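CORE FACILITY INTAKE
Project code: CF-77B
Contact: R.S. (postdoc)
Sample description: multi-component assembly, three entities in total
Requested service: structural model of the whole complex
Turnaround: standard
Below are the sequence entries exactly as provided by the requester. Do not edit them.
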Amino acid sequence: MLRPQRNVEFRRLLATAVLGLLAVTGCTSNATPSASVIKIGILSDCQGDFGSFYNDDIGGALAVLAAHYGGKASGAKPQDGMTGAKIAGKDIQIVGIGCSDSTANKAIDETRRLVEQLGADILIGPLSGDEGVAVANYAKTNQPNKTFINGIAGAQEATLKVQAPNFFRFNPDGAQWSAGLGSYAYNKLGWRTAAVIGDDYAFPYTSLAGFIAEFCAIGGNVTKRVWPPLGTTDYSSFVAQMPTNVDGTFVGIGGAGLITFLKQYQQANGTINSKKVMGNLFWIDPQLLKAIGTPLVGAVAANMIAADSTSAQTKAYVQELSVYPDVQKDAASVFTLGYWNAMTALGMALTSVNGDISGNQKALQAALAKVVIDGPYGKVSLDKNRQAIADNWVTQVTAPPAGSNVPGLKTILQIPAVDQTFGGFFDSSSTLDRTNPPCVKKTPPPWVGHEIPVNFG
Amino acid sequence: MLVLFLAGAPSIFDSFTLSQILTKALWLGIAAASLIFLSSYGGMISLGQTGIYAVAGFTMANLVHAAGGRHLGWDPLAATAAGIAVATLFGVLCGAIASRSYGIYFLMITLAISVIVFYFFAQVTTLSGYGGIRSVTPPAVIGNPVINPLPLYYTALAASVLIYAGIRYLARTPFGLALQGIRDDPARMQALGFNVALHRTLAFGVGAFIASIAGILSVWYTTQISPGGINVAQTINVLVIAVIGGLYRLEGAWIGAAVFATIDNYSRVWMPNVGDWLGPSRFETVIGLIFLVIVLASPGGLVGIWESVWARRNRAGRGPTQSSRNPAPETVDAVVDHHEAV
Amino acid sequence: MAPRILLALLGVVVVAWIAYKGGQNGRLFWVVTLNGITLAALFFVVAAGFTLIFGLMRVVNMAHGSLYLLAGYIAFTLQASWYGVSSNLLSGNPATVVAWVVPLVIATVVIGLAGVLMQQVFLRWNQGQDLRQALITIAISVILADQMVAHFGGIAEAIQPPAAWPESVTLFGVHYGFFRLAVVTGAAIAIGGVLFLVIKRTRFGMIIRAGVDDRSMVSALGVNIQVVFAGAFFIGALLAGLAGVLGGTMLAVQPGNDSAFLLDSLIVVIIGGMGSLGGAAIGSLALGLVSSYANVYLSFGTTDLTNYSILLTFILVVAMLAVRPLGLFGRPA
C-alpha cells in the first residue's frame, strides 16, 4: 500500500523537476557559430578581495571597442555591456561578463560558462594570480582551439611554466612589476641586507621574487622572509618578527591587509622611514593610496604604470576611457590597463587577419604573438612564451598637493624592456614559494645599470 | 523511470547544460546525500562532509599526473581507490572523535573538522600545489570531461543511482535499523546493549565513503582542486543544498543540488538589477533567501513541501493518507532534543 | 589520572619552550604577549555576547560575526559622512573624540536593535529548536555577508581613533599601540566587570542565571521570559556591535572578518563553556595567547611551522570538544 503511493508521488515530483529544468534550460540557445560574428567573453572578479576593481577591468576592455571600433555602451556601468562594435567588418558580440571571486574554482566555472555555454570564441581575463594559472591550464588542456588573453593575473607560472600555445599575456607578471627595485635598493639606498614580508600565496611569492632575484643577483642578502598566512587579520605578531637590524624591508602585503599592516608597523616602530622601506605595486594603486595616505611619502615602489606620465600615448589612453568617467579616474590602475592591453592587442590582431577566426583560430593566434602595443607607458611585445616584455617604472610617493590629503606619485626611473626570465634568473623549472628563489649572486638582469631617469614634472 | 530519462538526457539537453548543470547537480547531490544519510538515518547534522571530500580529492590529485602537487604518476583508477580509502579512514577517525557529541556540539565539531582540512591544505602547499592542483588526469574511461562530457555524466549518474540504492538497502540491514534506533533514542539503545558510539562512528565512516566519491567526481568535473574550492563557503553550500532539498529525504540531495546548480548558473544572466541589493553577482543573497525561506517554512525542504502539497490533495480526495516514509521528525530538533540531556 | 599527568607535562613543555624562546629576544616576547592579551580582550567582548545568548536561549547565533562586521561598516560610514574623517592613517580631517564616540554609540545601539529584531522575527517562535535556529542564523549571515560586500565594497577600511589619543605608548622599553593596549583592553575589563555585577548583583542578572539553569521553571515562576530573552539578545548583539567598532579601529573593517570572528567566538565559548562569562574570559585568553605565541614561536631550529598556527588552534578545539564537550565551565541545559 505504501510503496506504490510513494512511487507515484516521487515520480510526479521528479517529472515536475525535470520539466522545470527543461523549461529553464530550453530557453538558452547555444547559437550556431556565424561566420560574421566574433564572440568575446570578459572575465574579472566581482567578489572577493579584488571585487572592487570589477568596473575598472571591464571598462578598460570595453573602452577600446568604444574608442576604435564603434562600440556603444549599453549603460552607465561597464558591466551593462556594449553593442555595435565591429572589427574588420565582423560584428563583435560580448556574450557575457564573468564574475569570479579570486578563487581558481569560480574562475573555471565562469570560464566554462562563457566559453562552453555562451559560446565565446575568445576570452579576456581573468584577474587574480591563482585564477590565471587555472585558466591557462584549462586553455591548454581543454580548449586548444580557442584564444585566451589574460586580464591582469600576475602569477609567473601562468606563462613561464604552463606555456599554453593559446594563452597570451600582454602585461608583465608579478615579478616583472618589481623590476628595478632591487637595484634601486642596493645602489641608490645603499641596502646590503633586507627582510621581506608578503602574504602566503602565489602572487606575493611572484612579486617578492622579482625584488629578491634582482637584489641578490647584484650582491644583496635577504636575511628573513615572513609570510603571514591566509586569513590573517592581525599582523602585529608578524610586524614584531621583522628584524630591525637590516638595512631595509620590502613589503609585499596585498590590498586588504596593507592598511592594517602599516598601522601596526607604525605603532611598533614609529614613523615609517621612507629610506628603509619599499613596496610593490599595491602601494601606488590609486584606490589604495587614497585609503593609506601620507605615511608612505618618500618611499619607493614600482609598477608597469607611470602615473604622472605626460606622453602623447598616455593622453590618448586616458582619452579612450572617457566613455566611462568612473573608470577614467582610475586610468593609472593596473586593473584598467591590463584589460585595456588585452582588448587593444586583440583588436590589432583581428584587424591584421581581417577578422578570420577560422581554422581553429591559428591565424589569429599567430597574429597575436606578433602584436606590439605602443602603450601609454611604453611598448609591449611578447616573448616566445606569449608573455609580455614591457617597461617597468620605479615611482616615488610624494607629499599631497595643496588642499588634498591623497599623496602624489612621481615616476623617477624607467626600466626598459623587462622580460619574464630576468635575464635567465628564472626558467620553466623555477618554483616560487616561501623559500624560493634562493638568494644567490648571479648575472644581474640586463636592465641593471641601464635604468633611465625620467622626470615628467 | 527517472533513471531512464536521465540516461537519455544527453539527447535532449545541449552539452553545456549537461555538463555544467546536470553533472554538477549529480556530484553535489552525492555530497549532500552523505550529509542527508547522516541526518536522516543517524540524526547527525554534519558540516564535515566538505572536509572529507577534500581529503579524497587532494589525495587522488596528488597521486596522478597533474600540474602541481606531488604528481606521482599513478594510474588514475588506483589513485581513485586510494583517495576513497584515505578519506573513508579519515572519516572513521573523525567519527570516533565526534561520536560522543550530539546536536549543536556535533555540528561545531564537524565544522571544526572542515575548517582544519581547509587550513591544512591552504598551508601545506606541497600537497595543495601552491594554489591548486590543475589539469588532473582522469581515468581513460572518462577522457577529457570538457571536450566530451558524456562519460563523466554517465559515471556520475551511475554513482548516484548506486549510492541511493545502497543507502536504502543499508537502512534495512540490522546496522541501519540500529542506527535509526540510536537516532530516535540513544539512551534506550545503550540500555539494550548496543554500542552507540561505535554505531555512530561507523555511520560517519559510511558518510565519509559517500562524500569521498563526491570529492573524486568534483575533481574530474572541475579539472582541478584548490583550497579555495573547499573553504567554509563551500561547507555552507553543501548544507544549504541538503536543507533546500530536504534534510530527511534522501532524494532531496539531488533535488537540492539541481536547484542550486541551476540558480548558480542562470542567476548571472537573469537576475534583475535592483540598486545594490540585487544583481547578477548577488547569487549568494538569492540562495541565502531561498535557504532561509525553506528553513522557516518547511524543514522537510522542497521534497517535504511537495509531499505535503500532494498529501493535502490526496486527503481532499480520498481521506487521510499515512505518511509514506519512515516517520521522519517534524522538526530538526525533535530528534536532537533527546540528546540535550546527555 | 594518566591523561591529566600527560596534559600537565605538555603544559610544562610548552611553557618552558616559550620561556626559552622569550629569553632569547625579550622585546619580541613582550610584544607578542601584549598582542595576545589585547587580541584576547577583543575576543572577550565579542564572545561574551555570543555566550550570553547561547547560555540563556540556547541559540547559536551564527550571524554574530555578521553583526560584528556590520557595526564596523556603520561606524565607518558615519565617521566618514558626518565628520568627514578621511580614511588616511594620520592626516586628513583629524578625528575628534566626538567623531569616534558618536559613531561608536550609534552603531552599537543600531546593532543591538538589529539583534532584537532578528530574534523577534526569526527566533522567537521556534524556541527550543536549536538546530533549526542555527540554520536560520546561518542563512541570515550568508545574506548579510553578500549584501555588505554589495553596499560597502571589498576594500578594507579602518575606523579612525581620535587624533588626540597617542598613537603608541612605551611600556618596559617596548613601543605598543595605545588604542589596542588602553582602549580595547580597558573596554574588555570594564565590560567584564559590568557584566559580572549585572549578572551577580541585579535582579535581571539573577533571572538570567536562573534561566540558564532552568528556563521552564523561571517561566513558571511568573517572570515574563520573553522580555528577558529580548533584553539578553539586545545585550548580546550590543556587545557584538561594540566589538565590531573596537575591532574596526584596532584592525580593519573588511569582508571575511565576519566569519573570522564568528569562528573565534565559537572557539572561545567551546573552550570556556557555553553560557559562562568566566569561561569566555579564560577562553579568550587561551585563544589570544595561543595564536600569538604560535605565530612566532612555532619554529624549531630550521623547521618553521609558524604558518600552521591556525591549524594548532583548531586542533586544540577539536581536542577540547572530544574530551570535554561542555568546555571548562559549561553546564548542560
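Facility notes:
- The mean pLDDT of chain C is 86.
- Residues 26-57 of chain C form the longest helix (32 residues).
Invoice: internal transfer
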